[in-house]
């Protein structure tokens, strides 16, 4: 399910939207075939049939009455569907609240109340439990963005200074791709993210891991030192260390995420090194500079190995 597919749905809103899409596609196909059929009859049909098609009553019925009936029925169905979107599950647990902030060109994800005095902060990945309502509270820090998880819901505008809310629910585990769908600058196309739906026990275990401060085993001390010397802490936070900047993504559990660079590359030690060395080559215009000329090979490998170990 690691794809962006409006027909590979995982929740009630996704199912409703997919049903509407099939209805529109199917209805459009029926009308297209009907129009072609009438055209062929008009060109090659018997004279008696052509006279019937030219009857004013037939023209009024097919050209006015039928479109009014069909479009009215479709409008009523769509309005009913719009009212149903985002409705909470009756009698379920209180909804989980997650804050998502759009940046050029990445996603900040916050879980309020999951830590004393604050919450867990991640980036470019939203983890949710299955079978439970989740209220996404979305906004933007710079320009207008739009959050879309095709398998779960329709598009949600992210506007600076305004918080929009949408209730979503995943009914089965899986990884789903999401995307920014409002042009937000040069790297709009590379502003993706992953949603990982897990069973409630797996989700709670993930939260427990996220609550832990970052650890540095002895074999990664060099990487931590390179991170400090290169000034990475001026933009990034790593919980449990002296670095708490919020200009760029929080890196506390970077190695446990599925992608790097907001969906640009899969997560592994090699792609982390490639991103650090050539962020501007891989994603020109993003706010992270390339460090190819600032770090030598051993330094680059050391800091990448340390960051990948943060899970």
UniProtKB/TrEMBL annotation:
The keyword Signal does not apply. The chain crosses the membrane at residues 20-46, 58-79. Its main location: membrane. Pfam families: COX2 (PF00116), Cytochrom_C (PF00034). It is found in: Membrane. One of its GO terms (cellular component) is membrane. Keywords: Copper, Electron transport, Heme, Iron, Membrane, Metal-binding, Transmembrane, Transmembrane helix, Transport. Residues 93-209 form the Cytochrome oxidase subunit II copper A binding domain. Residues 218-311 form the Cytochrome c domain. GO terms for biological process: ATP synthesis coupled electron transport. It catalyses: 4 Fe(II)-[cytochrome c] + O2 + 8 H(+)(in) = 4 Fe(III)-[cytochrome c] + 2 H2O + 4 H(+)(out). SUPFAM superfamilies: Cupredoxins, Cytochrome c. GO terms for molecular function: copper ion binding; cytochrome-c oxidase activity; heme binding. Belongs to the cytochrome c oxidase subunit 2 family. This is C-type cytochrome.
């Amino acid at each position: 399910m690691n794809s962006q597919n409006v027909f590979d749905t995982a929740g009630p809103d996704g199912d409703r939207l997919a049903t509407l899409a099939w209805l529109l596609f199917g209805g459009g196909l029926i009308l297209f075939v009907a129009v072609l059929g009438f055209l062929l009859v008009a060109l090659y049909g018997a004279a008696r049939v052509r006279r019937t098609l030219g009857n004013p009553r037939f023209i009024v019925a097919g050209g006015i009455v039928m479109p009014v009936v069909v479009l009215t029925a479709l409008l009523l169905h769509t309005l009913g569907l719009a009212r149903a979107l985002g409705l909470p599950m009756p009698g379920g647990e209180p909804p989980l609240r997650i804050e998502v902030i759009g940046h050029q060109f990445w996603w900040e994800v916050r879980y309020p109340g999951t830590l004393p005095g604050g919450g867990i902060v991640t980036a470019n990945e939203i983890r949710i439990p299955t079978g439970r309502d989740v209220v996404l509270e979305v906004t933007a820090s710079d320009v207008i963005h739009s959050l879309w998880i095709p398998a779960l819901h329709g598009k949600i505008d992210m506007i600076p200074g305004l918080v929009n809310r949408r209730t979503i629910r995943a009914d089965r585990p899986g990884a789903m791709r999401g995307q920014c769908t409002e042009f937000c600058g040069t790297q709009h196309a590379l502003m993706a993210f992953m949603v990982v739906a897990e069973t409630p026990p797996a989700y709670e275990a993930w939260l427990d891991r996220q609550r832990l401060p970052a650890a540095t085993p002895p074999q990664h001390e060099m990487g931590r030192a390179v991170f400090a010397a290169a000034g990475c802490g001026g933009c990034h936070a790593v919980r449990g260390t002296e670095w708490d900047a919020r200009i760029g993504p929080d890196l506390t559990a970077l190695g446990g995420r599925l992608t790097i660079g907001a969906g640009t590359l899969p997560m592994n030690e090699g792609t982390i090194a490639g991103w650090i060395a050539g962020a501007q080559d891989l994603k020109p215009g993003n706010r992270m500079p390339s460090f190819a000329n600032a770090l030598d090979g051993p330094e680059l490998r050391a800091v990448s190995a340390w960051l990948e170990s943060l899970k």
